[in-house]
Design brief:
This protein is mainly alpha-helical. About 75% of the residues lie in helices and about 5% in strands. Strand 1 and strand 2 form a beta hairpin. Helix 2 crosses helix 3 and helix 5 runs antiparallel to helix 6. The protein is elongated and about 140 Å long. The two termini are about 85 Å apart. About 0% of the residues are buried.
């Protein structure tokens, strides 16, 4: 809901001055927002406290002002009225601030007024010191060593799978060869050649597919490693630039402070020398 009442709407609703669509909007806003209902309860409590204060008649002693002998009461003077209005305004502001959670702060030349609990401000973290060339080189060497170990493990696993595949093929083919030997007496030479060629083509296709799959996996792994390394170098470059910019700003501030101090010292020396020459001239 985009509708949000201001202070004037709150006061008008509290004293029953809203009518029609404005009153419906306010009631719908109170029904849909629990915090708004709590704020309305605070305003109602404040109104009850203000209504419970009884007006007491205070008769001040007459004070004679001026030399003409005419009597003027102190509450009729402009000064008393001004002070009383300021005190009443401060009292109302303090009561409203107590129930609405108003907070005031003064820092430097800035005066702030806030309602509710102060919002937490996230302080940006300072960039970590940059790595040296030796650290980067050691990290690269470590990454290459890990890559070599992973590739060696992958090659070992590939060799084991290949050996297992060859053994399984030999085991399966041995049975076929035995059957072929048994049927050699009845089979013709042409049938034997066709069977052997078919068996060789099947074995060649299996080995080819296996090596293609292994090479594609190695290629993807190396590409991912290069992409991660490029991202690391870019992040390291960004951190180094931020650190250099921070140090340049600090150096510039120190230079300005040193220049101001030097100017103050020179001006002090010039003033001292001028005062000394003036005294000598008088003597």
């Amino acid at each position: 809901m985009s509708y949000k009442p201001d202070q004037q709407d709150w006061m008008a609703y509290l004293y029953g001055e809203l009518e029609g669509a404005e009153k419906e909007k306010m009631e719908h806003y109170l029904l849909s927002d629990a915090n708004a209902r709590k704020e309305l309860e605070k305003f109602q409590q404040l109104r009850k406290m203000m209504g419970a204060v009884e007006d007491k008649e205070v008769i001040a002693p007459p004070i004679v002002l001026g030399d003409n002998g005419q009597q003027r009461f102190i509450w009729n003077t402009p000064v008393f009225r001004t002070v009383a209005s300021i005190a009443a305004s401060l009292l109302i502001i303090m009561l409203v601030g107590r129930f609405t959670g108003t907070q005031m702060s003064l820092s430097g030349n800035e005066f702030k007024i806030s309602f509710g609990e102060p919002r937490k401000v996230d302080v940006p973290s300072v960039a970590a010191p940059s790595l040296t060339v030796s650290d980067v080189q050691s990290m690269i060497n470590q990454s290459l060593d890990q890559n070599n170990q992973a590739m060696q493990a992958s090659w070992k696993e590939t060799q084991q799978k290949l050996d297992q595949s060859i053994r399984s093929n030999l085991a399966s083919n041995s049975g076929k060869i035995d059957r072929l030997v048994k049927e050699a007496s009845t089979a013709s030479q042409e049938q034997i050649r066709q069977f052997v060629s078919t068996l060789q083509s099947q074995n060649t296709e299996v080995v080819k597919n296996y090596f293609q799959l292994s090479s594609s996996e190695q290629k993807k792994y190396i590409e991912n490693l290069l992409v991660d390394f490029a991202k690391y170098l870019q992040q390291q470059r960004t951190d180094d630039l931020q650190l250099v910019q921070t140090r340049l700003n600090a150096l510039e501030q120190n230079t300005d402070i040193f220049r101001q101090e030097t100017e103050q010292i020179l001006s002090s020396i010039i003033t001292t020398v001028g005062a000394t020459e003036t005294k000598e001239t008088k003597y």
